[in-house]
């Protein structure tokens, strides 16, 4: 293992600042955030740097050389092999060095900085009809620098090549400090003693290079020295690709762009097993597919379990599938090729997919594979470590069968998938890392799996690189001469072994610094004050926060396709404000790395402060992280039996204050006068912990419950028997006290649909405001009373209809977390009642969409700009609403992202600017573009409040839109 020079973090950061480095951070928060990537490993750095230009990177390297401190380059931190963590200084290029410097459409090239996101390069190239070929599944957050470091490939490398096939030039700093401009970059280096030394070394080992390296395209392990052969033109830029930052630091790159074919089709082929699917690959390759991906039934079942059957696109019969993409100029020609391919593929069943939405849905299942495979069907955590082996495609079926037998022999389970056309298999395996001998089990399996791959003529890595996971395994596939050659090349570029030490050359042991192995369980047995049940994590908070594997989807902007996660990261672009960053800090808290009372550490406070508790991650994160729940737990632990921020009392107890105002005659008018008073506004907001730029809400003159009671009292002659039975309307605080019109509209629509509407005898509250402020004991009391009030209606056959999406979501999910096992007894009465209420709770659209003999009012000609509430998106899904509006004839623009107010978040002091920035991602631009006659649909009270605050438009609830158009 590499032992760095014992310089302290303050010494390093002081030296960096003296050298002109503007952003160097040695805080516990930064060290926690950057100690992990998407791998098994945790290696805390001593400082993190965010350079603004190449000169700053050179200054960092100079300081590290002077002080003999290791240096690791990092892009998005999505490395699954541990390539992007190191014990010294970590350079994050993604924050500032993220420009596309040049697109040359005539030459078909681009000049980029290392922090450019792959999908950002695609957007820049697309107007010219060009694209960058390699597209890893992390394309919407992976940086070009990281792709160059790993020699990333992705699904379409079969058609467009690996990153090394598409790099034309590199501007780099060697570990010696020498700047090398190699290939097609400005001011190319004409001569260099370093390059002369490299030529001499490789020239003396031509036989080793020709016989052991470059044997098949996915041989990524080690250094790709085959590019230095005389017959390949001594191509140093291509040889540096895949060196994982151990030889040089990338400052800029010239990459090849390719013409994007105008037509594509996807062919889905079903086989009895995944190994049978692999056997068919050689018959498919002659058709020159752009992609040929393998998918296993086990991952498909995870999709259904996690998201429901509706989330799974139609697949042909089988237990293993190939997804084959063909691209070309003519759709007719592609369809003819597809027919011939299917005839030769020997599949059980097939589908030719020409619908782009259907194809995109299939690709999403494949792209989310690493996250979806993070839990086995039995609920065990599944880990990386052996997730990237590759064999020649002709060997793939035989390899898979032996690999499955090897896993069974070790009593392990995995969910395989991968780039079958290239012979590359991804799999996550349930190594027992929580047990005493877990790392030994990991080590034993990795070495036996490595021997298996070597017997099949394969590579330990097919695209993720060796990193810390596979460097120690290289002697299984390479001779001592080849290993020695790698060491000699390393000594030429980095004689002091400062660049990413412990990787490829003189590697760290594969079982060293395994993050999960150092994490003890944290159940009620260990922490009696645990506030939530963590039903899907065996009651273990540690297991819950370790759901995050680091794949970093939370750093991607998926709002254009309706995604929500992660609004705060999109606003600040800081790792601490990503779901992953927060999970990493929480992992350090539960593992005791942030002190004996990590719940009160400044690092945790800073990481969680800008979390909107939007729950977007609970549905959008492929591993199922629920940061809103973890934040509530963290606040619960931090403030339990301690004074809280003022906003926790003012906003967290809002339902209590609303009930008080309703209880005293005349107090509503007085409260509203005070709320509207300009003179008192500064005092009131300060006392409440509210941002001074926010207006305080005013109470409605009449509550919904009062209106409903008065309306019922006026009814004469009895109520006609409902066609479809009773529904109990869940009257939340926001509807009752502030927006009773939405409740009245819901009553009108439900009665039109043939339901008799009732409400609970007494006011009830779901406890949402207590949950979001981490007052979980109070939330439990609120939801227990609510469940007890609703349960008799449910047991009498009524369904519960929610009006406010966030409160409906509590009934559907959080109630069970607070009551289902809240006493340690999963079968207690309140837990069972919570489950019954959850099963009976519907959104308005869900109920109406399943109501027989009712059709929605005609909305033809109505354009709807819809902002689904984040909790609606995450817990219930918005598909029923979209379908109802489609059936009604409306034209719908569905927005992604969050409105930014997010309950109490955007109102609290210190959050206003981020709240507005989040609204600016989707909501505000869409509303500004909307025509005056368009409807802005916002079911959430907070979404409508944000609209009122930041625009001149008001939002409508779905119930109000439907009511206005009832016949």
Structure in words:
The chain has 967 residues and is an alpha/beta fold. The longest helix is centred in the last third of the chain and has 20 residues, at 776-795. The chain starts with 8 loop residues before the first helix and ends with a helix.
Briefly summarize what is shown:
The protein has 967 residues and is an alpha/beta fold.
The amount of helix comes to 40-55%
Give the biggest sheet.
Answer: 5 strands, antiparallel
Beta content comes to 5-15%
Based on DSSP secondary structure assignment, what is the total number of beta strands?
A: 24
Helix and strand content put the structural class at: alpha/beta
- Computed over alpha carbons, the radius of gyration is 29 Å
Q: Largest sheet, order of strands side by side? A: 5-6-10-8-9
Low-confidence stretches: 821-826
Q: Which oligomeric form is depicted?
A: single chain
Shape annotation: globular
Average pLDDT score:
94
Distance between the termini: 76 Å
Provide a count of the helices.
43
